[in-house]
Amino acid sequence: DQQVKQNSPSLSVQEGRISILNCDYTNSMFDYFLWYKKYPAEGPTFLISISSIKDKNEDGRFTVFLNKSAKHLSLHIVPSQPGDSAVYFCAASALGGGSNYKLTFGKGTLLTVNP
Amino acid sequence: NAGVTQTPKFQVLKTGQSMTLQCAQDMNHEYMSWYRQDPGMGLRLIHYSVGAGITDQGEVPNGYNVSRSTTEDFPLRLLSAAPSQTSVYFCASSYLGSYNEQFFGPGTRLTVL
Q1: CA-based max dimension of chain A
Q2: Where are the strands (E) in chain B, listed by range?
């Protein structure tokens, strides 16, 4: 059973508009969440994270929102740029659960930003 | 800093052959791990290590062995390759402690015929 779900395999947006990528999780022990970005033929690179004690974290054009009651997080990119076109992975870990360093990944969402 | 390096970039094996995927990091990270990425499956944890001499299994460890004799290196061994091990393999590392993101290598694309 998938513990981290990204239900949209792909998303297409226009340059300058907002991109919203969604992620749901089922394991209530997860308390730290990360977003990774991956270009073809490269390894994933860290983008932004949020701990369960917060409901929002912002870094430049990227904002992650966490709704613990709904077990849902989202990544907002504003404004979207063509260079943002990549696969975005949501990941989660249970820092306080004895498996601090194990990341559980979603399947990823392919974002395409059209000029 | 080279970061996390992986060799080889590409490898083709025949069923039953053995090989070692190399991973090295120069950031003095205690934690190192191996993931595999399959189409439509995201990244799945194979094995991980929290320091030299300490390894543990992840989500999909069968068919793979690891060892950690130094802080810098974390090789992944396939003892008898199977077509089901055709995948892209990523090595990652990070500092121990909370809230530390993992840094990934560029990946090794493995095909088992």
Answers
A1: 45
A2: 4-7, 10-13, 19-25, 31-38, 42-51, 54-57, 64-66, 76-78, 87-94, 103-104, 108-112
- pLDDT tens per residue, range A6-32: 999 999 999 999 999 999 999 998 989
Regions of chain B with pLDDT less than 50: none
Task: Compare CB distances from A95 to B4, B45, B98 and report the shortest one's residue.
Answer: B98
Q: If you count residue pairs, one on A and one on B, with CB atoms under 8 Å apart, how many are there?
A: 59
**Mutation site for A-interface testing, chosen from B102, B103, B108, B109 by largest number of A Cβ within 10 Å:** B102
> What's the one-letter identity of residue B93?
S
Relative to beta strand B10-13, strand B4-7 is unpaired
Closest CA to B49 of B22, B24, B71: B71
pLDDT digits (tens, 9 = 90+) for A64-82: 999 999 999 999 999 999 9
